[in-house]
Amino acid sequence: MTSDIDPKATNAGLATTETPALELVRGPAPVDTMLPAKASLVDLALDWWPVVAFVASAAMLATAHAFETFGKLYPCTLCLKQREVFWVAGTVALIAIAARYSPWAARLRRPFDLLLGAIFLYGAGLAAFHAGVEWKWWPGPTTCSGGASAAASDLVAMLKGDKIKPPACDKAAWIFLGISMAGWNALISLGLAVASLMAGLRKAGTVR
To answer: Residue 194 CB: number of other CB atoms within 10 A?
Structure first.
């Protein structure tokens, strides 16, 4: 009895009794976005902007006092006014932090962030004006001539025997990378102002 299978068909892989090979079909690759996405550092900073604004204000004040205490770079009239801006910003930031735990947190978030932006923007303008005075682009206030009365810290230093010369606003006491302290203050304050506006204009639903 002969076989019905053609040897040629068998060699060609066309035998009727041969089971066709099954190819595995791959499904769609796992989607990473299905996992909870971690908030980026920028998003986290904007979500908790009053905290960042308070830390930044405290750091700027600490840096200024460190230059005065350890570097003997005593502030001029415009320098003191720039410090007042950070004192105000830090106070507003503290109030904004406390307001986040109030029943009106959702309503107060945006006004506080925008208010911080306005304060930092004013500080940036004041610092830029001081930098322009240092570059002799425009005259400074009459109290910046260098003949202003000494501050309380200066009087203490004078009692210790240190020679104190009231600084003039039109002379940069410290320069780094070609930019004075007032110039750096202007750049940092402008960055804080932009970040405050970004935080204030974020949708309320994205804020924790």
So the answer is: 14
Closest by Cα among 193, 181, 183 to 53: 193
Residue 87 identity: W
Using CA atoms, how far residue 187 sits from 67, 72, 155, 179, in Å, is 18, 24, 32, 10
Q: End-to-end CA distance of the chain: give it in Å, rounded.
A: 84
Which among 64, 85, 41 is positioned nearest to 193, based on CA atoms? Answer: 85
What is the tens place of the pLDDT at every residue in 169-179? Answer: 878 888 889 88
Write b or e for each residue in 80-100: b if 16 or more Cβ atoms lie within 10 A of its Cβ, otherwise e.
Answer: ebbbebbebbbebbeebbebb
pLDDT in tens, 56-97: 999 999 999 998 888 888 888 889 999 999 999 999 999 999
Instruction: Give the 3-state secondary structure of residue 180.
Output: strand
Count other Cβ atoms within 10 Å, centred on residue 53.
29
pTM, entire model: 0.69
Beta-carbon contacts of residue 52 (< 8 Å; ≥ 6 apart): 45, 195
The Cα–Cα gap between 179 and 96 comes to: 33
Q: At how many degrees (to 10) do helices 105-134 and 181-200 cross?
A: 160
Q: Are 189 and 150 in contact (CB under 8 A)?
A: no
Cβ-based neighbour number of residue 79 at 10 Å: 22
